[in-house]
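Hey, I was hoping to borrow your eyes for a little while. No rush at all, and the record is pasted right below.
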Amino acid sequence: MNLPPKVTERAFDRLAQINEGKAPAALRVAVAGGGCSGFQYDIRLDAPEPDDLVLEGGGQQVVVDPVSLPYLAGAVIDFTDELIGARFVIENPNATASCGCGTSFSI
C-alpha cells in the first residue's frame, strides 16, 4: 500500500498566512504531464473536490486528486523561504530525476 503524502507544519503555517483574513482555500497539489522532465507539479489555491484526499493541519487543508495521488505517494510537501525565493516544495521519493527549477520531474 502506498503511503499518503505528508505536509509539514511549516507548509500549513504558510497556508494559514496566505488565508489570513480571507475565506480559507485549500492548497491543491497535483501532477500533470509536461515540463522539461516529463511531469510537473501544479500547486494552487482551490476548493476540495469530493474524491480528493484531504490532509489537514492547523485548521488548513491540502488536497490531492485521485489521479495525482500515486505520483505523490510518500512525498513531503513543505514550504521554503530562501534567497532565490519563497515557495511550496515537494520532496518526492518517486521521482527518478528532476530539473533545476524543482517543478518538473520524471518517474
Summary: The radius of gyration is 13 Å. The chain has one domain: 6-102.
